[in-house]
Amino acid sequence: MVYHTTMNGIKIINYLQILYFHSSYSYSFIVQLYLRYIKRGRGGLLFSLVTTGSMLGVLGFSYYKKTNFNNDNDKILKIAENCGLYTKTEKMKLYRRNYNKKGNYTEYVYKIPLGMELEDFKSKIGKFKDGLNNRSVRMIKLKDFKGLTFDSTILKQLEDIIYSRIQLSKEIEMEYDGMLKIRVYEEGLKSEYRFKEEMFKELKKWEVPLGVSLQRVIKIDFDVASHVLIGGATDMGKSNVLNLITTVLLHNNPNDVEFTLIDLKGGLEFSKYEHIKQVKNFATNADQAKEALENVKADMTNTFEFLRSKGFKNVKQAKIKKRHFVIIDEAAELASDGETDKELKKVKIECENLIKDIARRGRASGLKLLYCTQYPTVETVSSQVKRNLIARVCLPVDTATASSVVLDEGGAEKLPLIQGRAIFKRHRKTEMQCYYMDDEIIDKVITPHITFNPRSEESSVSHNFEKKSTSRKYTTIIEKA
Ligand SMILES: Nc1ncnc2c1ncn2[C@@H]1O[C@H](COP(=O)(O)OP(=O)(O)OP(=O)(O)O)[C@@H](O)[C@H]1O
């Protein structure tokens, strides 16, 4: 220990002792007493020694409190009781506690009263969460001291750090496997996780990281998954998800990926991709969408013919590397229901039929459909299409009905209104914060692929093979493979 001769020096040493011993939690009444005492000028060597001893006691107590589970466990049991989650003869009982340092959570395993089920507890999840966060605490972190300026305001700065309060933001998850598991995370999801360039190389060929859940990175592997339904209210981050998927696929598979982009929001969202060579069809209205979908269907039919002739079941078995992604942003614009213009209605009905066909048969031919809408209703997402859209991403929506159109169950209407917050569902639901894809990364990835060859030429070549030539029977997909 270093002793300074001046009063200020001793004060600083005393402050630092407090801060050291209270690196995680502070017990305010002791700290306040301590500060008041040394402020009155009764500092000094003896005081330092005595208080160091008492601070060691506080440290022990602090450590005990930090690792002690009674706090949250007591609260959980109390909340369960207040919510009526007990029977006449039985209450919830703690069976085991696991502390997961890496995951930053503590898992409490309970035996629940007979006759109760997970849903009884899940329906009260908001109450559990509020109960666990019902006070603010003083929390001192060592990193707060990095910004200190050593001048005459040092004591004030230290005081500010010590007295700053934070609101607890614990998150909980519940699971049942014969026992009820309640995981309490010290911190919930952040409101932004940026996609970083170094993440590209950590991915498998067709893998795309969608976002971060409390426990892990949520990835979708298009080698396994095929079609995806993406829904969410306006401005909640659908286009960002589409940009994220498109950019990652393009970066990791520039020679094997192809896109049909149907952007019914006026072409603004996808315009940056319009001239890259991997984009085979680009549409911004229903008529163009119909033409683009017909091209895709023609390719699909050719691929099936090829597979059949060679005795393969699918492109994977045939070792065809090409995958074609049909991405429709604002698919509700193609819904014929409610369309009053007769001609347009006819076009939309054709589009709907083409989409159904692609969703139903596309998988084996290497087609992947990303169907995105801000109006998830039974009219805009037909049941025939939906049953083939296995993976679902639902950003915040207004109603439980909209959530159940996307996820087949409610939940997304209760998501916090944070841009990029979503529920991912494949086999089970997971809340996540989608990665945010910066425009700079998108530009860097797409720029080398921009071509000034008019795509219409290329696509019409591929599209017109069967019409123009009998010898070149298959599309470019097959030839390159
Ligand atoms: N994952 C995310 N993390 C943080 N912010 C996000 C995220 N996704 C989107 N945002 C923010 O939300 C804004 C709107 O996002 P985006 O354009 O993707 O929404 P949208 O649902 O497609 O909107 P619209 O339906 O109006 O086209 C973006 O400009 C961005 O600032």
From TrEMBL:
<feature type="coiled-coil region">
    <location>
        <begin position="279"/>
        <end position="310"/>
    </location>
</feature>
<feature type="transmembrane region" description="Helical">
    <location>
        <begin position="12"/>
        <end position="35"/>
    </location>
</feature>
<keyword id="KW-0067">ATP-binding</keyword>
<dbReference type="GO" id="GO:0003677">
    <property type="term" value="F:DNA binding"/>
</dbReference>
<feature type="binding site">
    <location>
        <begin position="232"/>
        <end position="239"/>
    </location>
    <ligand>
        <name>ATP</name>
    </ligand>
</feature>
<keyword id="KW-0812">Transmembrane</keyword>
<keyword id="KW-1133">Transmembrane helix</keyword>
<feature type="transmembrane region" description="Helical">
    <location>
        <begin position="44"/>
        <end position="64"/>
    </location>
</feature>
<dbReference type="InterPro" id="IPR027417">
    <property type="entry name" value="P-loop_NTPase"/>
</dbReference>
<dbReference type="InterPro" id="IPR002543">
    <property type="entry name" value="FtsK_dom"/>
</dbReference>
<keyword id="KW-0175">Coiled coil</keyword>
<dbReference type="Pfam" id="PF01580">
    <property type="entry name" value="FtsK_SpoIIIE"/>
</dbReference>
<dbReference type="GO" id="GO:0051301">
    <property type="term" value="P:cell division"/>
</dbReference>
<keyword id="KW-0131">Cell cycle</keyword>
<feature type="domain" description="FtsK">
    <location>
        <begin position="215"/>
        <end position="404"/>
    </location>
</feature>
<dbReference type="GO" id="GO:0005524">
    <property type="term" value="F:ATP binding"/>
</dbReference>
<protein>
    <submittedName>
        <fullName>Cell division protein FtsK</fullName>
    </submittedName>
</protein>
<keyword id="KW-0547">Nucleotide-binding</keyword>
<keyword id="KW-0472">Membrane</keyword>
<keyword id="KW-0132">Cell division</keyword>
<dbReference type="InterPro" id="IPR050206">
    <property type="entry name" value="FtsK/SpoIIIE/SftA"/>
</dbReference>
